[in-house]
Amino acid sequence: MAAVQAARLLSRRAHVLPGQLHVTELFFEVPKNHAKPEAGSLKLFGRCVRKHERPIAPFPTSELEKKEKLPYLVYLEGGPGFGNREPKNVALTRVALDRGYQVLYLDYRGTGLSTPINAHSVLAQGEPPEQANYLKLFRADSIVRDLEAVRLCLTKDFDEGAKTWSIFGQSFGGFVSLTYLSKYPHGLREVFLTGGLAPIRRSAEEVYRATYRKVIERNQAYYKKYPEDIATVRRIVQYIISQPGSRIKLPAGGYLTAQLFLTIGLAFGGHGGLDEVHSLVLRLATDLDQFGFLTRASLAALESQIPFDTHPIYAILHEAIYCRRHHSNWAAYRVGRGLPEFTWLADAESALVVTSDSEPLYFSGEMVYPFHVADSPELKRMTEAAKILAHTREWGEDLYDEEQLRRNEVPVYAVSYIDDMYVDFEFARETAALVKGIKVRETNGWYHDAVRSKSEEVFAALFKLRDDEID
């Protein structure tokens, strides 16, 4: 792997937040293409958090410098395509600070405040092939180069033994962590993973064949808990189909189709997800009962469940996270259309006709389909680039180095969820077997979002893996 140049720190602003958090807002400059530094640059945004203390007497300068050089723990968010939340709203912040870290929340390139991807910036690159080449620069291989560049920048004045840092990868953040572990292990002190053991040996098609099975199980659990929704969901689908053009204008400018409605099962993979979908279904049905149409407020609530316009990387590069030396070719769409539970992918109206009124219509999960791009005002402007990416086999450098993972010497601690709807458990086991020295806690007691909804339990399990010796 080619050496990385340190990022350039552009600005640093410090604040004290309620709750005794000292937060420093940082902007960095990194190459747009690390292999071609002359091709321009991107900005990265991050927040560094440490404890703010009010001493009886002022700290001496040496003590302040010592606090600024506490070991870093870098949180890597899921996605792809999402920036970080405010540090005070992340449970990890308190846990990590209490254990003596300072925490860095760095928005990946293209997300949050890090030169975010949008239709205007993508179209400005030129014709669709140039747009696609630009979007290829926002995968995990570029992300880890950014991380290593920022590490070199922030730790340049640290003692030699303190220059490494720890990373904590949730979901896609775990995928990024494994790429980092493959490429720049010398920069890492330790790695924590939650729901992030990427299926590194599996194609996108294999991934979706596995995850659809779990989505079907979650649908069955949903309709078992809310059997009245079998009729309600069918009624909502029928209403949407009955509208002019079989679609309804959404507040942000896109269109609600029956197919789009049936993709809100993404929430099924988290704690409380069944209830979340039911609440939305109930709201839509109540609109039809009271007004005979879907209100703006309800449409906006539904729209928020499909955040692709505001997080375009999630839609356009989602299948690319599984691509090493192959193309995805809209794998989720191809696999889903071959399953009897998802015949609506081809034609929602026909799915209503060929099934009885007592049969449930299943929701899809973490899958992205061509109609997501076509029906979204922001994404549809990038349609041609999305098509190119779906059919490309040329991704540049491989995301993972399996030989490096086999000889890994960096401590790795992972929590893996048996009932994970997004990261297949058996594939996660397969990956864990490749990483030398990894310690894994496997559980069927939590779902994929447990790092947020069951945070205290998850952190306790992870640090128990780190702190307890087996022998």
UniProtKB/TrEMBL annotation:
<keyword id="KW-0378">Hydrolase</keyword>
<dbReference type="InterPro" id="IPR002410">
    <property type="entry name" value="Peptidase_S33"/>
</dbReference>
<dbReference type="GO" id="GO:0006508">
    <property type="term" value="P:proteolysis"/>
</dbReference>
<dbReference type="InterPro" id="IPR029058">
    <property type="entry name" value="AB_hydrolase_fold"/>
</dbReference>
<dbReference type="Pfam" id="PF00561">
    <property type="entry name" value="Abhydrolase_1"/>
</dbReference>
<feature type="domain" description="AB hydrolase-1">
    <location>
        <begin position="73"/>
        <end position="232"/>
    </location>
</feature>
<dbReference type="InterPro" id="IPR051601">
    <property type="entry name" value="Serine_prot/Carboxylest_S33"/>
</dbReference>
<comment type="similarity">
    <text>Belongs to the peptidase S33 family.</text>
</comment>
<dbReference type="GO" id="GO:0008233">
    <property type="term" value="F:peptidase activity"/>
</dbReference>
<dbReference type="InterPro" id="IPR000073">
    <property type="entry name" value="AB_hydrolase_1"/>
</dbReference>
<protein>
    <submittedName>
        <fullName>Alpha/Beta hydrolase protein</fullName>
    </submittedName>
</protein>
